[in-house]
Amino acid sequence: MGDFDISIIRLINNDILTIEESIDSIISQNRDFKENIQLILLDLGSSDGSYEVAKEYEEKYPNNIKLMQYRDESWAYGVHFNRALKEAEGEFIHFFDPRSELSQNAYSEAKKYIKKYSSEVDIVYIPVYYFDKKAKVLRPKVDYVKSDIVDVKEHIDHSIIYLGAAFIKKDAIGDLQFDEVLIDCEIDLFFTEILMKKEKYALVQNAKFIRNKKKLPNKYKTPKYVKNKFNLFFNHFIDKFNGDVPRYIQYLLVSELNPIVRIDDLNEFYDPKEKEIEDINEYYGFDEGIDYVPEDYNPKEEVDNFWNELYNVLDVLNLPDLEVHKEVPRITRSFLVCLKNRDFHVESREDKNKVFLKSNDYLINSLHFHKLRIDIVELIGDTLNISGSLSSNSYTENMTVELTREFANGKKEVFIGKFVEYPTTNRRIKTFLGIDWQFPYNFDLKIPLTKDEVSNLTFKIVYDDENHHVAMDNHIVFREFAGLSNLGNYLIKNGRIIFFRGRTFYIQPYSYSSVLKLEFKALIRILRAGGPFLLQGIFYRIVYVLLYPFWKNRTIWLFIDRDIIADDNAEHLFKYCIKQDDGIEKYFIINRDSPDYERLNSSLDNVVAFGSFRHKIKYLFSEKIMISQVTRGILNPFTHENSYIYEGLSTYKFCFLQHGVTKDDISWWIKKYHKNLYMFLTVSDLERDSMVNGYYNYEEDRIPVLGFPRYDNLKSDPQKEILFIPTWRRKLDNPEKILNSEFLQSINSFLGNERLIEKANELGYKIVFRPHPELWKFLDFINLENVVLSEGPYQEMFKTASVMITDYSSVAFDFAYLKKPVIYYQDGEYHYGEGYYDYETMGFGKVVEEEDALVDKVIEYMENDCKMEDEYAARVDSFFKYTDKNNCKRVYEWLLKH
User: Fold this and answer.
1) Are residues 263 and 373 in the same domain?
2) Model confidence over 284-340: pLDDT tens digits?
3) What residue ranges in 409-566 does DSSP mark as E strands?
């Protein structure tokens, strides 16, 4: 062992954007870095330059930094950690987590504890915190004790050790190694083996480890993964203690059960039929070298074995500890309890309007305590629309949402909520191990209102089965952007006031005195609630109430494309609408820093800066907002300013003009309960039918086929340009992924294709590249040597291009609308759900998968004056309902009528 206090191990795997920052953070945290810190860097075969950066640090600090490189693709980190451990010389070992963050004082504070408690503990631990994005605060993983020494026998919820938060004594590790087969629990196994020696550790009181929550990718949840986890992890501890497992280790076992029990369907999981698996052995764990499913493989036996193994674990778990586990979601805990008890039943107290879902004596759900969550409160004409949901472990067929309307004269009416499904969203039924376990109940209600109506509306959730019938009076809460909130609890529209108090909605005719009373109470609630942007919210509410008597009869329309970019459907519709003399005030919203702001403001009236005072006031009084995006941050200028404060004030109709033709199933994204579109503009009957028959759940009359406004101004003047415009990949959700992706490699390969470049030069063509908005930040990593970078308006780009190459982007519809040739260069890695649109039979050009085939097709077009084939031109005519340049007129007339 050397003279180092700490050996820090850091794995490198194509981390060019973070490696320099993380090494600097280690060096800067320790003024005595050269004397006391050893940094072991193990590169896993990086190809992005991060190894070379690390090499420079090694050369600068040769006595402190040791760099190694192993080019293998083992997902089991144990392999890599074991290699690095052989080189560790420090008294304590720390495994640096590049995806998380240590507070600036973490190393210095850890060293104090190491020095103070090295004879008492084997582990010095930094408290773990999560960053709550919504509240913008750090929250501790558990409620940590205030003692420097934590005894895990007494504090079982402190027994899980996270990789980047621990400093482990080298002597305590000894010959112990990480398991090299396990995935995702090899670290827990390693740390727990050390923790068991003294069953306590030192807890640093004034430092923080800020952890990013990460889920195991689904592709690693395989039968082999499950088998190894039972054999090498769960059974390891059960056998070690002969079934009498200490409580703090039980706590760990429950945590590691969580990803396993969330497997949707065991029968499908173990059945290899219809699975596209490149490596059967890797997926199922057959004997090495087998690349087929053995004849004696029996999926049913595998499922039976799974249940035997699972119950073997459940049998050693202490039920009270399982019930209160702080790191496993309640939905998982209750499922495990039901499995362990082998019981699920319903109890009720009809005289008390209470329903209990239980497993033996364990309470799973109190249905009467469930919150009824309101998604939508809107008044359209004389109809009040209310939508919402609740989620429980009760079958949806046993649940009903009822609304009772009581008039001032005592007359009552009952409305039954229409049950709606959203199976493509997180409101689908949650299934654990093939057992339906959590059931969302989504409902829509439409209540026709009478003239000058005074009434109140109350909800009941009714549970009904053959043994129970209970009507429950549940608490009501509002989701963000519901139209009302517990702070902004009233709205004014169409001569009516609708407000919420207690658990009841009230309807009454408009009067300004009533508004003043309601607003006064709302301001008191807002003041008591506190929170960010408080004074700003109060200011805008007061301005709104003061202006309302004078502005209530004004009709205001807002038009928005993006906050920083125009030139889409909203801009083209706006230019048409402002020419119409209809008494409607129309404004186009764009960020003042956008180049489009100057362009539009110099030639048009009523261009308003996004987020300005003028924008916010117009927003609060707008009747309709026409927008080509569905992002709330673009639609609502208060989105990031505690939007609950403003709910109720704005009652606009959200008219979605679309950015591109909907060809895929995006019901998981643009679902009614979240977006509540008043108009969902389409260009084709096929497009509309896919929405009406899908799970978007919008009323049919909200999805008109009128054509895109921007199509009216499409022009064609080809200038011998080959336009390459790939779309984005949502799975590339961090810089490291995009920089090391086949997606980026494919782009660079095509843009640098020598055969294409030579032929284009010979025939006088230019290769034009238009990055997706998400790709602009990575331009330094794209080969632009032989191409022209397109930065201008899309309309101009479509006008001058001769051929378009895309993969899945909906811009192909704009280009095909002009009867120009399209080529689809696809890799099978699209991020949207499969929809009605089939590229092979409905697409406007050839589908290719190989670069050579793509280049062949581009050259063919260049040599033949870039003419679209008759087959594809006919598809254009059959897809688009209108090609008459009257789309703006149709959309405007629809907006006037509705």
Assistant:
1) no
2) 877 766 777 888 889 999 999 999 999 999 999 998 888 888 889 999 999 999 999
3) 412-416, 418-420, 430-432, 435-448, 455-464, 469-472, 476-478, 490-493, 496-501, 504-509, 556-560
Contact yes or no for 223/229 (Cβ under 8 A): no
What's the CA gap between 556 and 574, in Å, rounded? Answer: 13
In three-state secondary structure terms, 757 is helix
Q: Longest Cα pair distance anywhere in the chain, in angstroms?
A: 89
The CATH number of the domain where 699 resides is what?
A: 3.40.50.11820
Domain ends where: 211, 244, 267?
211
C-alpha dist (Å) from residue 327 to 252, 318, 334: 10, 16, 13
In a domain, 358, yes or no: no
Tell me if 894 is assigned to some domain: no
Statement to judge: residues 101 and 65 lie in one domain: yes
Six-digit token string for 164 = 């980047």
Indicate the Cα dihedral angle 789, 794, 799, 805, nearest 10°. Answer: 60
Number of domains in the chain: 5
Do both 24 and 137 map to the same domain?
Answer: yes
Q: For residue 794, which amino acid is it?
A: Y
8 A C-beta contact, residue 580 and residue 642: no
pLDDT tens track for 442-481: 999 999 999 999 999 999 999 999 999 999 999 999 998 9
Radius of gyration of the chain (CA): 31
Q: Which band of pLDDT confidence, cut at 50, 70 and 90, is reported for residue 175?
A: very high
- Domain co-membership, 152 together with 251: no
Strands (E), 827-892: 845-848
* Residue 807 C-beta-side C-alpha neighbours within 13 Å: 21
Q: What is the span of the domain harbouring residue 375?
A: 367-529
The two structure tokens encoding residue 426:
């997180």
In terms of phi and psi (left: phi > 0; alpha: psi -120 to 50; beta: otherwise), the region of 243 is left
